Amino acid sequence: MPATVDRVLLALVGLVLLAVGGAVLAVGLGAPAPSWWLHGGPHDTLLSAAERTRWRGEAWWWPTVIAALALLLLLALWWLSAVLHRRRLAEVLVDTGDGAGALLRGRALEGVLSGEASRLDGVAQAHVRLTGRSEAPEARARLLLEPHAEPVTVLDDLSSRALAHARDSAALRALPAEVRLTAAKHKSERVS
Predict the structure, then answer these.
(1) Cα–Cα distance between 123 and 154 in angstroms, integer?
(2) pTM
(3) Helices (H) and strands (E) in the chain, counts
(4) CA 40, CA 9: separation in Å to the nearest integer?
């Protein structure tokens, strides 16, 4: 639901900006302006000098302008952080076979996945996070590989062991995973 609201708001803001920008561009290039349009021609200004300086002498004007701009900036930053933040899955719905189901804490499953992934050969450190919906979770794993590790082998072991165990124990149809591999820094070895 929040993703849909974000998309609708972005689409509306984009359409309004596109329409206003296109209209200003068309009038600026010499197209005839409609009677309700703010500008009379290509050399007309948005605000006249009298309109721009009308409230400048009032004591409340500049604090109000600064507060409004600060509020807009804070709202834009809040919206950006909400869009970029991937929500952590709080609970996973486990099918118990009786139609009722059970809830498994997402952090518990993350801990088990991280622990099992960190015990794989060639993995120095593992961090797993669950996202998605409670009935269709997705795993995001970051693995720090030891110098001798082969990425293909580590990925095979991760999918056939840790992810398969989690999928089977939680009775999930699928557990898609996005895995990011990084190599641990090590000293250069001298070859003789």
Answers:
(1) 7
(2) 0.53
(3) 6, 5
(4) 31
- Whole-number Å distance between alpha carbons of 99 and 92: 15
pLDDT for 106-158, tens place per residue? 888 889 899 999 999 989 999 999 888 888 888 899 999 988 888 999 999 99
Largest CA distance in the chain: 86
Dihedral of alpha carbons 30, 31, 32, 38, sign: negative
Which two structure tokens, joined as six digits, stand for 157?
């072991």
Q: What are 15-43's pLDDT values in tens digits?
A: 998 988 888 788 778 788 777 777 666 67
* 3-class state of residue 159 by DSSP: helix
Task: Please name which of 133, 134, 130 lies closest in space to residue 163, comparing C-alpha atoms.
Answer: 130
CA 20 to chain centre: 29
Q: How are beta strands 136-145 and 177-183 bridged, if at all? A: parallel
User: Please, which residues have CB within 8 angstroms of residue 166's CB and are 6 or more apart in sequence?
Assistant: 109, 112, 113, 116, 139, 172, 175
